[in-house]
Structure formats: C-alpha cells, structure tokens
C-alpha cells in the first residue's frame, strides 16, 4: 500500500500533478539514466574514443523496456548504489563488441546528476507553463479591479483605503520577478555532469573535455568549465526558486482565506457545487484550494534548508548529502506543481465582492480615513498637532459610538480651517487611494512587455 501522500491514489492529486509525477517516477528516472549512457557512447564515438557501431548498439539497447526492475531492485539492495544494476543490465543487453564500452569513463554520480538535471529540465517546463497561466490570471484581476476600492489592512486592522487591483498587482509584480529569474536559473542549473571517479576525466586522457562537450551538446545541456560533483549551489537554488514561487502562492492563499471570513466576505473561491462544504455545518462554504496551497508553501520553505545540506560535501564526493538531494528535489517539484494546480483556477475564477468591499470600508464610521484628515489639517496645524487632533476625534468616536465626521465637525480646532464640504471630501475613500492606479498600470505595462495580454 502507498505510504506517502504523493503515492496515494486518494491524496496525490491534492499535492501534485500527474504530469509532474510522470517526470519524476521510476520510468522517467531510468529513462534519464539510459539517456546519459547512450549520449555518452555517441559523444565518445564522435570524438573517436569508441567505434561508431558500438555507440549505435549501446543507443539501441538503452531502452527502459530492456530493464528488469525487479532484478535491478534486488541488485541495488545488495550493491548499495543505484547505477550499478543499470549498467550491468545495459551491458548485458549489448553485443559483446559494444558492451565493453558501456559507462566508459563515467561514475555513478555522473549518471545520477545528469539524469536528475534532465528531469528538472522537464519539470521546469511544466512549472513555467503553469506560472505563466497564473500570471495571466493575476493580470486579469489587476486590470479588472484597478479602481475597486477596499480597506487596506495592517496588523489585521483597517488602515487606509487601497484598491483590490493594487493588491493583485503586488502579487503580479512578484510573480513577474519569479518568471524573470527563471532563464538565469536554467542556464546555471541545466549543465551536464561528467567527471569520472574524482572529477578529472583521467581515464579518457586528453579527450575527456571534448567528450564532455559532445555529451552536453547531445543532451542539450550546458558544458561546464569544470566538474561540479561537490558544487551543489545550483540545485539548492532550484529548490529556493520553487519555494519563492510557493511563498507567493502561499501568501495569496492566506489572503484569500482571510478575506473569505464571514465578517469580511470580500473574496470567495470559485463556486463548485458540493465543494467546500462541512460534514457538520451545512451552511459552510470553506476555502478548499487555500489550505492546500498554504500547506504546500510551508513544506517548500522547509525543503530549502534541506536542499542547502547538499552543499556540505566532503572531499571529492560526499557521504550522505547526495541522498538528501535525491529526496528533496523531486518533492520540491511535485509540491510546486500542486500549489500552481490549485492557485491558477482559484485566481481565474476568484469571486470578488466589490459591494462588500465598499460596505467594509464604511463600517468604521470613517475612521479608516483618519490619515487623510490628518494630511488635510497638516498645512494648517502642522503634522504633530494634526495627529493629536485626529487621534482625539477618532478615540471619541469609538468611545461614544459615533462617527469621525461628527467628532471633527464638533471640534473648533478642525472647523476653524475646514468646512463640512472639505471634511466630506477627505472622508471619501475613493478619493484617497493615492497612486494605486498608476502603480497598477506600471505593473500591467511590464506584464504586457513580457508578452501577457492586458
């Protein structure tokens, strides 16, 4: 029976996508290892290290369907290293004249690292596509609600007015930064690993670096200047990038869930009949995507520290850090796919209640406009005195159960400088969103320049 949520048919689609699981399952893993072995043979033939017909024979034999997984697993349990059983079976599948050249000059870590790089390349393609779709949803929200006023909140209390488009554009701005980071990450991450036992390619003599270059070209990977058996920063960077994306999505999920509260009710996840109900309370419309996104983001942050353990390598090959990476990297990709899987449709169908946002803006009797009134009084009283006057009026409104307008009109220190019409203008939240709209426009312009329709 499956023991992890990723393997459980019941749970797995809540935390990862089928497409991403296919990138990191055993079939894909074995295929990536065989791709390395076949490409290595072709590269060595291209440089003249082995005969071309031997390379072709190895390529023909390097198929997942020639492997016996049960026998491989038994051999792995005995040998303790995962590539030894693969090399043995691939060698057995080749004619004798070609078998002698299988895995020539390579070491287990070369196969493991390059194989996982190939898998991460496919995984990044899936993540990038879903990130773009999520960005498109954020573009639509920011554009549609550019001027939709709502309460801005600090320390979970009403602070001053903003627009929902401004909030969405802040999310969009960060998402665009994550997208912009990806090309440089890809360039650093997607490098071939081929160094042999201690990274010097000594068995291949002067041809070693030429073989490595041909191998990289064959696999569509970057040819590094030097072996990176113990240089694991790029793998940690990949997990960190996935966690950054997850962090944004987790923050969005938290915000949506907070604004779904009964007392707030400004946002709702897309309605799907039967979704989000309670087993005990028939009236409930619970967030469903948000909890999963938040949980995934939490786990991704924890994986960053574990990924950085991969940098702790002894000598020319570490003792335990490689196994940690083998666990952490696939999980990070699976989790990131799950977060995007939930976030994209949630944002595409997000129910934004503009009317309720306006009700909530007005619920405090104008107190949310205290900063605006203080700003209006500052030219007459100075900032310090203006702050004291408005603080006194706000406190009186709370204590007496009245509104800020009435308290201001009753204070000679205010009416000596502002008439009722001026006070009413200052208390209008729509007039006090500052440059929110212009900021939204700036982010949307950047999104449009990146190829997103606005």
Care to describe what's here?
This protein has helices at about 10-15, 20-25, 25-45, 50-60, 70-80, 85-95, 95-100, 110-145, 165-190, 210-220, 235-260, 290-310, 320-350, 355-360, 370-380, 385-400, 405-410, 410-415, 420-425, 435-450; strands at about 150-155, 155-165, 265-270, 350. It has about 450 residues and is mainly alpha-helical. The chain has three domains: about 15-105 and about 195-225, Orthogonal Bundle (Fumarase C, Chain B, domain 1); about 110-190 and about 230-360, Fumarase/aspartase (Central domain) (Fumarase C, Chain A, domain 2); about 365-425, Fumarase/aspartase (C-terminal domain) (Ribonucleotide Reductase Protein R1, domain 1, Orthogonal Bundle). A two-stranded antiparallel sheet has the order 1-2. A hairpin with a 2-residue loop joins strand 1 and strand 2 (about 155-165). It starts with 11 loop residues before the first helix and ends in a 5-residue tail after the last helix.
